[in-house]
Design goal:
alpha/beta; 329 residues; 2 domains; Rossmann fold; five-stranded parallel sheet
């Protein structure tokens, strides 16, 4: 018969062993999360970092109680399709995908749960039957990227009232570019603005696009959504300054890089919130039942340093609406 001290010791040891097993599970038993992005690891770094921070906030530690398979397509449509198919073959428990990557996954799985980040109009794009009840294997965070471009055009016009010929730079590979162009076109007719569409498939095309805008005597520029543009945001801002084009973009990272204006939801915060969807799915929730989240807070950022270089005076009414002003002190 065991004495009382030995029995208590063995029970304590058993409890400790169970606790350690729960914290450090064998790698093969860890929940597996795929992370698919259409751009490079460097370009995606602010967003993948925010996603990992969200997981940590939820009690997850990579390699201890969750495993993540990262795939970055480096802006290659072919690689993106291959990587989407690879993650499906690996039978991930859930896959997180940025906007363009979600479209690649839609063609290869209707079973594996997918959490999309920054997809514009998920219902119109076919990811969900409704925002409240997606009804499919996709859910996540809507970006309103398509819907907000007319607002960006309005803000650009407010910042540069003299602008009547405005360039529209798009990335043709983005699946929602046609829809964005239609929305901006409708807004331009209301504002009585002439649009000058130009496009860039690759970074090498950017110089030519800006040269075309010079030839067409553009007064300003709106840059539409495109994964390549995120990686080239500093170059885009520099080219806009070089060609004396006041410009508006969709995310604060562009204004931080030197763009005149940005307006939109916080993409890094959205990436952080995607971890909450992953947590719910790993605990048994079905994406079909998880409502798509829409942004409720939008940040207008004005870069006064850029305005000064361009010789612009931003109207006080616009500055008063800004969430943040760069170079105000």
């Amino acid at each position: 018969m065991l004495d009382r001290r030995t029995l208590i010791g063995r029970l304590a040891l058993g409890t400790l062993t169970v606790a350690r097993a729960a914290v450090a599970q064998p790698a093969g038993n860890l929940p597996r999360v795929g992370y698919l992005a259409s751009n490079s690891a460097t370009e995606q770094a602010p967003f993948s970092k925010a996603f990992r921070e969200g997981l940590i906030d939820g009690g997850y530690a990579e390699g201890r109680n969750i495993a993540i398979e990262y795939r970055f397509a480096d802006r290659s449509e072919g690689r993106l399709r291959e990587m989407a198919a690879e993650l499906v073959r690996l039978n991930m428990d859930v896959i997180v995908a940025n906007g363009s990557a979600a479209f690649a996954l839609r063609t290869v799985t209707s079973v594996i749960p997918v959490v999309f980040v920054a997809v514009s109009d998920p219902v119109g794009a076919g990811f969900a039957v409704s925002l409240a009840r997606p009804g499919r294997n996709f859910t996540g965070l809507s970006y309103l990227g398509v819907e907000l471009h007319p607002k960006r055009l309005e803000l650009l016009k407010a910042a540069v009232p003299r602008a009547h010929r405005i360039g529209v730079l798009s990335e043709p590979a983005h699946p929602q570019t046609p829809q964005m162009l239609r929305e901006v076109g409708a807004a331009a007719r209301v504002l009585r603005i002439e649009l000058l569409p130009v496009s860039a498939h690759e970074p090498v095309d950017l110089d030519g696009a800006f040269d075309t805008l010079d030839t067409q005597r553009a007064d300003a520029l709106i840059v539409l959504t495109g994964p390549m543009f995120y990686g080239e945001r500093k170059r885009l801002a520099d080219l806009a300054l070089k060609h004396r084009l006041p410009s508006v973009y969709e995310a604060t990272l562009f204004a931080d890089a030197g763009g005149l204006l940005s307006y939109g939801p916080d993409l890094q915060d959205m990436s952080r919130r995607a971890a909450g969807f992953v947590d719910k799915i790993l605990k048994g929730a079905k994406p079909a039942d998880l409502p798509v989240e829409q942004p409720t807070k939008f940040d207008l950022v004005v870069n006064l340093k850029t305005a000064k270089v361009l010789g612009l005076t931003i109207p006080p009414s616009l500055l008063g609406r800004a969430s943040r002003v760069i170079g105000s002190s």
